Amino acid sequence: MSGHNDAIEDADAAIVEGKAPPSRGRPLDRERILSAAIDYIDDSGLAGLTMRRLGERLGVEAMALYRYVQGKDELLDGVVEALVDAMDVDSDVIDAPQDGWQDFVQRLAHGVRRVALAHPKAFPLIASRPPEAPWLRPPLRSLRWVEIFLAGLEAEGFSDEAAVASYRAFSSFLLGHLLLEVATLGADVGPLDVVDEAPEPEGLASYPHVQRLRPALSIDTSSVEFEEALEELLNRMALMRHETTHD
Amino acid sequence: MSGHNDAIEDADAAIVEGKAPPSRGRPLDRERILSAAIDYIDDSGLAGLTMRRLGERLGVEAMALYRYVQGKDELLDGVVEALVDAMDVDSDVIDAPQDGWQDFVQRLAHGVRRVALAHPKAFPLIASRPPEAPWLRPPLRSLRWVEIFLAGLEAEGFSDEAAVASYRAFSSFLLGHLLLEVATLGADVGPLDVVDEAPEPEGLASYPHVQRLRPALSIDTSSVEFEEALEELLNRMALMRHETTHD
DNA sequence: ACGGCTGGTTTACGTTGTAAACCACACCAT
DNA sequence: ATGGTGTGGTTTACAACGTAAACCAGCCGT
């Protein structure tokens, strides 16, 4: 299995001289745990993530994790929280100066997308765990984000209704699009583990259109489709803005 | 817990005269199992669904289920399959005569939505389980549907590209929108169980827009928002059609 | 030297999915 | 009637999971 267990025991015998603390290096903290969890999900799928295995990956016994995490649920919540944080780092939406709401929205969308694509197997968690506040929808689930979004739009003339409507349109667009993109990226979304490449859907022959268009139905890895859809959305938002704005 | 266990034992004693077979009525079949599973999820959440409990609900031991279902995974697949079937019954998309692709698409959308709202806690399964064919995306995951969709559009002048693009736009729209709708309906989406009503998100005070607009952020139970978004989509599809069509 | 904290391990238990063996009846040909 | 073969279920068993509870081992300031 591992082969570095012996290494650990070696250390166990060799700690006499260094200041080497028990298990490994620094004493483990919540952040290390969360990022280890994400790593694990990224390369072995959500289904395989288990307290014991996560512990093992960190060179520690499963129960050790419970000092930093309330339980598995809380750990998963922590994972989505971490992903969300990664998103705003990745979209520069907090500090970077924005020119116009379109730029802002675009930046946001791309930031979220980058993270989604970077962690295809973890992303669905965002959609599948209930947010802290029920009216806070994935993937924009942090209060800060929603605030920035709404404030940003209103600062540029969106009415309350227009801003809220835009928020909804934006988040549902992003969620749907990214979930589908991510799903065709080898994700095993959900409780199930990797399902090895379905051989050839039975009875394909009786569905001529599907059969003929099959290659086209696979998602393109390029971002062109996303780009176009996003463009659409921006237009739509622009319309919303003028429908109810009063400047 | 139940109190009809005794009833069963009564029957056990009383089977002498009737032809009453062992456990209960007819001898259990896959369909009964699946619909029991859906019922269970509907009123106790996906997380609580367990082979033993499902068996119990059917008046049978857990292992009995394995005669009709390969395992839990296969059972969950069965559940989504059942839901998808329910959708096409519910949207009359197979037999009912359609007048124009817009009507067709609208029917489809509403059929899917009805099922989603009828089973808010089960619907996310559709999004979370990998489809038989990887290019077959939720929520339109049956070959038949995709075929009908594509064929329907092409019959009315959509080019291959336009039809495929429409298919994608449609499914990602539907998925995103419904997932969000369903999520704010008391669903416990995913592996976690019901999380009891978050008390009041901490630090709400520092997010004025969010705070002020909070009621508006909750989804409206009416279908107006869905209707509008769908309308948007139809317009967009109409554009796609003429962009690449050649008649 | 010593009580207490910190960070971890051990042990233990209940619950889950499921393999394997087992059983009871119904049905049928002999 | 008599045995053989399904069919539809139960029993038993086990490994893996999440996690509570008790238990260490060093380090700390006094």
TrEMBL record, chains A, B:
Keywords: DNA-binding, Repressor, Transcription, Transcription regulation
Occurrences of domain HTH cro/C1-type (ranges): 47-94
Name of the featured protein: AcrR family transcriptional regulator
Superkingdom of source: Bacteria
Entry's Gene Ontology molecular function annotations: DNA-binding transcription factor activity; transcription cis-regulatory region binding
Spans annotated as Disordered: 1-27
DNA-binding region: 50-69
One BP term from GO: negative regulation of DNA-templated transcription
Domain HTH tetR-type: 27-87
Pfam family, one: TetR_C_1
CDD domains per UniProt: HTH_XRE
